[in-house]
Design a protein that fits this description.
This is Armadillo-like repeats domain-containing protein. This protein is an all-alpha fold. The protein folds into 2 domains: 32 residues; 127 residues. Helices cover 74% and strands 0% of the residues. The chain has 8 helices and no strands. It is globular, with a radius of gyration of 17 Å. The two termini are 15 Å apart.
Length: 160
């Protein structure tokens, strides 16, 4: 456990140094994307392609801090990502009985996506609660369902 913690701290420090180096700053200016676009694209990439674990969360938090965006901008990004997911995949449905295997898997994937976005939005290091986050409303999730999905996600992260 101590080894994992030490490895995490070393990786975090390396990431911090790399993202704030003069070379990284020049690169950010040359690529033509604004920090909002970069953060939005990376969050989408991380949610869909990377395992949801403490390392990925640390990367997202570090990128959020390096972006120097305020909480309102980050909340706007998370809300936009949520709207795009709902537009592409539909609302979160808690009763998944009666679906075909394909529909069942798609709804479970929606549960996971909601859980990840909601978990990220609840992290004080990522976005303050005072921001205008409306993640639950966008996904059509009640407070009780949000807590259930969040607990399932935390269980998966701690055992996976």
């Amino acid at each position: 456990m101590a080894y994992a913690g030490l490895t995490f701290v070393i990786a975090f420090v390396k990431t911090l140094r790399k993202s704030n180096s003069p070379k990284a700053k020049r690169h950010k200016l040359q690529i033509g994307f604004g920090m909002e676009e970069i953060l939005r694209k990376y969050i989408r990439y991380a949610m869909n392609e990377k395992p949801f674990n403490p390392g990925m969360l640390a990367d997202l938090i570090q990128l959020r801090k390096a972006s120097m965006l305020n909480d309102a901008q980050v909340a706007k990004i998370l809300n936009e990502i949520s709207r795009q997911i709902v537009r592409d995949k539909g609302l979160v449905v808690m009763d998944i009985s009666g679906y075909s295997e394909k529909g069942f898997k798609r709804k479970l994937a929606m549960h996971a996506l909601f859980g990840k976005i909601f978990y990220l939005s609840e992290l004080p290091e990522f976005c303050s609660r005072e921001s205008s986050l409306i993640i639950k409303e966008i996904f059509g999730v009640t407070d009780e369902d949000a807590v259930t999905l969040l607990l399932l996600l935390k269980n998966d992260v701690s055992h996976g």
